Amino acid sequence: MQMVIQAGAHFTDHDRLLDLLQANAAMVAENHAAFWGLRPFRKIFRPALKPSADRPSHQETLARFQKLMPQEQQVDRAILSSALYLGERASIIMDGQFYANAGQRMAYLDHLFSESPVELFVGLRNPGSFIPKVLMLLSAPEREHIIATTDLSCLSWFSMIEDIRDLAPDVRITLWSNEDSPLILGDITRALVGLPEDLPLDQEYMLLSSLISDLGKQELQGLIEQQRAPNDPILRGRLSQLFQQHALTEAIEEEVELPGWNEEIVAAFTELYEQDLARLQTMPDIRFLKP
Known about the structure:
The protein is of the alpha/beta class. It has helices spanning 14-23, 25-30, 38-49, 58-66, 102-112, 127-137, 140-149, 157-167, 181-193, 206-210, 214-225, 233-246, 249-252, 263-281, and strands at residues 2-6, 33-36, 77-81, 93-94, 97-98, 118-124, 172-177, 286-289. The strands form two sheets. The chain has a six-stranded parallel β-sheet with strand order 2-3-1-6-7-8, with helices on both faces. A two-stranded antiparallel ribbon has the order 4-5. Strand 4 (93-94) and strand 5 form a beta hairpin. The chain is globular, with a radius of gyration of 20 Å.
């Protein structure tokens, strides 16, 4: 059995992925895959991932996980979805990096599922919008401590991925930019389940539809009715053009609530983020999904 960890990140469209999996649950089951959201993490994996002497043994954790398996279905691919597999809220920004414990957590899960290949799926988000969202999620004392002790300009997804590769080198990593999610949500879902790239999914453009104008929705419906394969280059190009022309500004641009965080800061982080994405896309052992 293959183990697939869909680990957010926080403030990305990972909930939409669960919705799309649910909308195609019959097809997922037919392909001998099963998926779970937050509940297994809370009940089984959170206690196991705690660095304490009284955490459950591997055997106990595996036994509890096995009880989740559907009895009426063969499962060759188990998909666990929650951003908390990378780290809890307080560790999203810690020790000068994103998800400082992510490498250790993936190493633990790889060791736990030593008889199964482990894959990690993570959507990355522009730190220019990610960092203020994380900070505003925390209490005022937690936020003030991070701001006082952390050089925020050094926060990088590249560092997190390097940690995971160093500590869990056998874990296969699949990444994408969350800003591309409206165009590739179906691709991400097919990759999670192990489906062919040309297999259409029900509601795979639901996220894109929610972000565009009524005229854009009409054009999108026309494209869907052409019944082109989702990996058709012509369809890809027209979807990208549609999104550029009809995206609703209020739907894709979010207000930054952190005092002092301005457009210049966001622009600087955007430049660093694009550099990180370019570096990650050149790594031969990382699969990077793009429109």
